[in-house]
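sry for the spam today, last one i promise. struct tokens for design, 426 residues
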């Protein structure tokens, strides 16, 4: 029986960004349509939104129902919960010792070739216990939540053995069950070729396909499979083999494509119908065309190109103009992008990718939801969807990327529950 009450009414909202409208991932000019409503309100029952719009309209819709709790937004900006669709959340160790190498001009791929980079984190992750990985990742999730992130995609890929990949994915599962932030898990055993297979990388591809993928599927530990298609890592043909095998097992498929060199990863994403292609700094127009035809979401990672001190960034403006749906993410990891702040990514999306504040908020809400296959439940504020909201200490969207380097979050509501209030975890 439906309750005759409203659990929570968020009212006196100065500007309510709903992202209502088109259900497909947004492209082109649609990315500027954020469904903004002045003097808004949101009514919540049982963790779901039951009414959203101008306050007088919402109150009229719920007239006669008892309201258990009212939250005064005090004229602030309210958006959907922010979504981080590309992270390497669960890992051991840290790599600040590589900063000096970067400052001396040693490239990302050169550090990897020397046994550093991803392989350094692999050693630390293999040595860490499940409990240690859980504690470390939980600390990062807390920071993400404080910054307004309510859903996170978490990739494995720092184990590179069946046992250690399963260990990472088990940690992500436990966090999803115990932490307010929702996690979507991605298996990425093809993140690098481990040292023990350095001379026979095809042998490791066989291990991923024949041993890892079936066992991850059997245990139900991941929804997606991702591959790092890059020079010195996995070739286009190796990536194709892994992704086809994953698709046949029922995984959704993603690809780290054309991050550093133009390998043709974006074209492969379109060919195979990947839900997302990620990084894309060196992707060609032909790759974008293939992605556009397939409806593949481009997940751009401007904090990574910023931190690697690269002179080029993903061509977000070109992709938007070509009709490719664009999302943004932190790429949180211990090496190339050690930041949990999606708000920093908002600023870099504007300054380095040339996106508008409206395009940026679209990229970290509804388009990010499409990049992880969750747009039917999150990414916009609409009746029936999950009640994930953020109240910012701001009156308009532009202020968030404009005033950078601080946390603008006042309150976070997750599944209808207040989990951050006045900038503090509840």
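last one done:
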């Amino acid at each position: 029986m439906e309750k005759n009450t409203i659990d929570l009414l968020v009212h006196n909202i100065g500007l309510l960004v709903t992202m209502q409208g088109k259900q497909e991932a947004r492209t082109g000019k649609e990315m500027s349509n954020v469904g903004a409503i002045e003097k808004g309100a949101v009514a919540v029952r049982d963790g779901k939104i039951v009414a959203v719009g101008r306050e007088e309209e919402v109150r009229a819709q719920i007239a006669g129902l008892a309201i258990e709790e009212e939250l005064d937004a005090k004229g602030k900006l309210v958006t959907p919960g922010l979504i981080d669709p590309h992270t390497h959340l669960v890992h051991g160790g840290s790599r600040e010792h590589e900063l000096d190498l970067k400052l001396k001009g040693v490239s990302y791929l050169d550090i990897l070739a020397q046994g550093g980079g991803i392989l350094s984190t692999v050693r630390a992750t293999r040595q860490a216990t499940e409990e240690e990985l859980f504690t470390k990742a939980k600390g990062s999730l807390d920071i993400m939540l404080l910054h307004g992130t309510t859903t996170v995609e978490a990739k494995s890929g720092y184990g590179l053995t069946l046992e250690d990949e399963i260990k990472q994915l088990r940690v992500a599962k436990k966090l999803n069950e115990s932490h307010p932030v929702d996690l979507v898990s991605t298996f990425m055993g093809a993140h690098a070729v481990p040292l023990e297979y350095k001379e026979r990388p095809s042998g490791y591809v066989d291990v991923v396909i024949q041993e890892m993928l079936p066992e991850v599927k059997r245990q139900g530990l991941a929804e997606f499979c991702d591959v790092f298609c890059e020079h010195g890592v996995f070739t286009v043909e190796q990536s194709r083999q892994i992704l086809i095998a994953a698709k046949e097992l029922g995984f959704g498929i993603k690809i780290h494509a054309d991050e550093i060199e133009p390998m043709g990863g974006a074209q492969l994403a379109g060919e195979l119908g990947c839900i997302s292609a990620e990084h894309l700094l060196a992707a060609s127009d032909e790759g974008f065309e293939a992605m556009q035809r397939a409806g593949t979401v481009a997940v751009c990672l401007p904090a990574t190109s910023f931190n690697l001190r690269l002179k080029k960034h993903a061509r977000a403006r070109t992709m938007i103009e070509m009709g490719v749906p664009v999302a943004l993410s932190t790429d949180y990891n211990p090496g190339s992008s050690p930041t949990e702040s999606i708000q920093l990514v908002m600023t870099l999306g504007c300054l380095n990718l040339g996106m508008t504040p409206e395009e940026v908020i679209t990229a970290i809400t509804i388009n990010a939801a499409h990049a992880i296959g969750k747009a039917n439940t999150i990414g916009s504020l609409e009746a029936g969807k999950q009640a994930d909201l953020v109240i910012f200490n701001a009156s308009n969207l532009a202020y968030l990327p404009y005033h950078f380097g601080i946390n603008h979050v006042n309150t976070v509501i997750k599944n209808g529950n207040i989990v951050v209030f006045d900038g503090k975890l509840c």
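The first helix runs from residue 55 to 61. ok im logging off now
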